[in-house]
Amino acid sequence: MITSIFDSQVQAVLDSVTALFPSPEDWRDQCIYFLMVDRFNNPGGAPRNAPFDAQFSEFQGGTFNGIREKLG
Predict the structure, then answer these.
(1) Domain that includes residue 59, residue range
(2) Any domain includes 48
(3) DSSP calls for 10-60
(4) What is the pTM of this model?
(5) Number of domains in the chain
(6) pLDDT score, position 46
(7) Is 1 among the domain residues?
(8) Residues 42-51: contacts with CB under 8 Å, at least 24 apart
(9) Residue 47, in any domain of the structure
(10) What is the pLDDT along the chain (72 residues), one digit of tens a residue?
């Protein structure tokens, strides 16, 4: 059983991915996206706490299906 990210099997997988997707030399010119699923879209209804951004400590109900619905 693998118990560490430093295990040789884990490192072999990481090395193979790095070869396919090399890291840019300078990340300052790269776009990095972040999506908070809970705040994005709930296809089953409106946000649970209106206005939806008034209370960040409560679950709003966004789902992965809500994200898929908005993708082209």
Answers:
(1) 26-72
(2) yes
(3) HHHHHHHHHHHSPPPS-GGGS------HHHH--TTSS-SSSSTTS-TTS--
(4) 0.39
(5) 1
(6) 67
(7) no
(8) 42/66, 43/69
(9) yes
(10) 888 989 999 999 888 887 777 778 888 888 888 887 877 777 777 666 665 555 556 666 788 888 888 887
